[in-house]
Amino acid sequence: MQTTTSPPPPQDKTTLGTASATTTAPRLRSLDVFRGITVLAMILVNNPGNWGKIYPPLKHAAWHGCTPTDLVFPFFLFIVGVSIAYALSGKKLQPETHNKTLLRIVRRGLTLFALGLFLALFPTFDFTTVRIPGVLQRIGVVFIIAAALFLKTERKTQITVLAVLLVGYWLLMMFVPVPGIGEANLQPTTNMAAWVDNSLLPGHLWKFSKVWDPEGVLSTLPAVATALIGVLVGQWLKKIGDAGNKIAWLMVWGVICTCAGLIWDLHFPINKSLWTSSFVLYTAGLAMLGLGLCYWLIDVKGYRRFTTPFLVYGVNAITVFFLSGLIPRIMAMIKVDTPTGEVDSKTWLYETFYTPALSPYNASLAWALTWIAFWMVILYIMYRKNIIIKV
């Protein structure tokens, strides 16, 4: 990882949501803000005071369906795709540098994978039961594939790959019999994706399911499709032309994809854990609408005063996501003696300052909001000093 410092705060360079690359392309402030909103939402939903006391919109859907929380990860992968189009467009025009660029892409993706694996291992570093899939791991793999496709193929090929991924995954999940189980199904433990996860990574899956993983192997393929839609959107936004026309078509395609996802849901249910093809279209459509709104307000109309809190999250997205996962693990190692026995420092802080003053659900939410405020202060200081940690 690299840390760069140079005043003033960044305005004119483009960095990826998962990695960074030097480029002459102008920075989309709206993309940084949209990324920041998404990462802020990640911190909010990942850090409740009490996992048993969470307001319904801040929970994932139990299985089929989609809550606001289920939008966070696909939005981030969509943003990764848009960022790829901006960050690598210059390199794409230089075929003689493609091999060198591909090596950098792979290095960055593997670094993200390693950071995710480190979080899974810390603090015990027990390799015998470590969960190998994960959020950062999926981001790393998706980044490598989507960036390589953007670099080495043209838009028509990218659209073809996108269609093959969506339709192929639908056919595989809905019509191919599951070995050793029987006909195709979408039940949590007996679907094709679960069979692949358990066959390839037995004992290294999500501890709450043990035999399948929400960031598993097979479901990473449609996750690549989410990023590819972002790549296509990024190429559209980079085109020289009227901003109003770009926004109009972005909104139109956002509505089309959202509706297509809802229609496909009737046969292939929207499901974040399986990352179904309907989920890809539905969430990508909503992401287009969100980015289009930010683009119109911030980059076209120039409304920027409200953006700084989100911008500070957006320019150091991976840094804050990684540290916000690491620090709670460190807090769990620090023990505090209380009249009722020894507890970890997080529990002590929560039960001392939050639960006595608030209802259980509000106390849990207040803890998550405190984390957001805590990181905002740190990220704002980094932003003012123009410190951007690059993977």
Automatic annotation (TrEMBL):
The chain crosses the membrane at residues 71-89, 110-129, 135-152, 159-178, 216-237, 249-267, 279-298, 310-331, 364-383. Residues 1-21 are annotated as: Disordered. Keywords: Acyltransferase, Membrane, Transferase, Transmembrane, Transmembrane helix. It comes from the Bacteria. InterPro entries: HGSNAT_cat. Residues 1-11 have a biased composition (Pro residues). GO terms for molecular function: acyltransferase activity. Residues 27-239 form the Heparan-alpha-glucosaminide N-acetyltransferase catalytic domain. Pfam families: HGSNAT_cat. This is Acyltransferase family protein.
